[in-house]
Amino acid sequence: MDRFARVAVHRPLFRLLHYRVPEHLLDEARPGVRCVVPLGRSRVDGFVVALDPEAEVGGVRDLLEVLDPDPVLPPDLVELGLWMARYYQHYPGETLARMLPPRLRARARPVYRAAGSEPAVGGEARRLWEQACRPEGLRADRLGPAQARLVAELVSTGALVRGWAVEVGEAPAEVWFGLAAGAPPPSQVARRAPRMAEALSCLAEGPLPRWALRQRGVGAEVLGRLVAKGWVARFDRTQTPGSAGTWAVAQGSERPVPTSEQADALVRVREALDERAFRPIVLQGVTGSGKTEVYLRAAEETLARGRGVLFLVPEIGLTPQFLGRVCARFADRVAVLHSGLGEGERALQWERLRRGEVAMALGARSAVFAPLADLGLVVVDEEHEPAYKQEEGLRYHAKHVALYRARQAGAVAILGSATPDVESLWLCRTNRYTLCRLPRRVGAAGPPRIRVVDLRQEDRRRGRRTLISEPLAGAVEGALARREQALLFLNRRGFSPALVCGACGEALRCSRCAVGLTFHRRPGGGVLLCHYCGARRPVPAACPACEAPGLSPVGAGTQRLLEAVRARWPEARVARFDRDVVRRDGGRSVLVAFERGEVDVLVGTQMLAKGHHFPRLTVVGVVDADLGLHFPDFRASERTFQLLVQVAGRAGREDRPGVAYVQTRSPEHPVFRAVQTGDHDAFAQAELEARREAGYPPFRRLALALVSGKDREAAERGAAGLARRASAEGRRWEVEVLGPAPAPLEQLRGRWRFQVLLRAPASDPRPLTALLGRLRALGAMDPLGDVRVSLDMDPVSML
Questions:
Q1: What gap in Å lies between CA 586 and CA 603, rounded to an integer?
Q2: Which one of 3.90.105.20, 2.30.130.10, 3.30.70.600, 3.30.980.10 gives the CATH number of domain 702-793?
Q3: pTM for this one?
Q4: pLDDT at 240 over 70
């Protein structure tokens, strides 16, 4: 009986294709394997997603080859990929390919090699056998249908044997380090060898992998010296911690006792685990309340039941302390997947998960595709973070995908944040999610005091715009006098956001984007950068518009703030932490120095707002809290509130009281009142009422179609045509069409951009997906010359 494979080809096709499975591939053609199929006159790769007893149409062609000895995607990930392709309106074959680490996307290929005696054949069969006699063998995926039949006959006679060739070297073993029994306490070597003392302090928590130590600023040279002294033992993943030596510190020692609120949250987790039921839990905990301890204990409960755990964090490279705690608690039971690892390391981690050697995966957005069997717990830390949304290509939201996986598996999903999305809180209020609160900080630490500073008064008093107000300056001076630390937050990098001509008032702008160029100081001068397309220009001697000299920087970025701090407190040790610093060395040296107390004042952007614990930090200053508040985005107020609460929460995390100064020229704005009072519920209620009135999520579902082209008029015509077709077809599903309108960022990377916003009648996404499927079928979203249409379901950014 014939068998047919449904295949998602790796081409821009939305439908699945049927192919007959030849007899010699019946055992290997399984869901989740990659394959080669004919498509027109071409041969293309794809994924087998299902097997059927019959095809939808007659005259189907044969599947040419199977590329994997075993499925690279388990059944639940195949089903997840097909759901994502439907929901996010993306090509199924490309969606499935995106789930694999880059190294595994073309890791093995089937080959035929000569075996036994020389066959008595001629012609094409003889040529194929001779090619199989070569050292590289006969590549199976390059055979045409007629050649494949000849090869099958040679296999049946024993002249050829089928095998697999790995095209890249094997992944390296993952290297771990741990304290040896004779290691001295860090305090004994801190004065003469501070870097070695830091490494010993890290390893005192338990064994750690090399990549985690790199994240915490411990380099290979320091580790080599420690191993040579016999204070630290080195082992790879082929060994166990016990076989690598006797560790000085037992894993999991000195664990904190749960607070009553943590214990209540864990009871909810245990109940859901026992029921094997999908249970989404929003864990709303103030900064320092111990959300991480709840995550870790919930993971222990899950692993004890023999089920898998998935940990997601928004940006893994910026949370070394969090990673250290997870690795110290679970040692070699956790696999890490993130872009900071080399391709070999990522492939190694993926394979360990797929083979079931470990049952916990930790990583950023793409780790949501980790091949975990019997998933029991999903943790999304900082669930409000927009970094979970992929903004290019397959525009998926990792939090939503993680929730779908949890529903598939009957797993618990913990969405943790000090400032959850108002949409998550609404789902709690409608009893679809469970809300657990951690309202108090662990230990003696109390919440930071919040002071709102009216910059308008400061400007009038000084007669010029204020960068650092007197109240904030006094607080920084007090911290320096007490040998404490201060953090000054300004969410804008560079020296100045604009260079403006004093004669005509024109600002220098990017020629390819509808934004001004940011002035960055450099040794010996400066440079103008576009933060959207990366364009770089030297600073001109005169205005390009009127040729007048005297271009002046307007506004401030982190470079200018750093300069002002050094001028005001010349004795203070000052450092900067923003995307420019991270791009140079990963930023680890700055964070480690601040954590050690080697920096007094740290100037930085939103990269400092989450995941960091600095015991000596007592003063936080938000230099310009109005940035982002007036963006053309319905989430602007919520994002400002979340950012301010998160950055203020860095202060006073230990037994020293903390204070945060929020500088603004709009002190009467509800966001700043909510930040000062700490009343998240009242803020969320006001936001929900405003969104219900305006017709925004969570009350109505959105999709954003972006039409772009190099020619402005052509792009505008394309957007108008799409809007007309969507309006006509959308009446059936009561979908409202808004636009077309120029995008807030009208030109980006040389392309003009127009938006068409589709709004469902309620929170159910099915009217939108039905309309979008109809528009796809009609060709309304196909490229027209240079004009392209990209679609964003559940957009996070409206720019």
A1: 16
A2: 3.30.70.600
A3: 0.86
A4: no
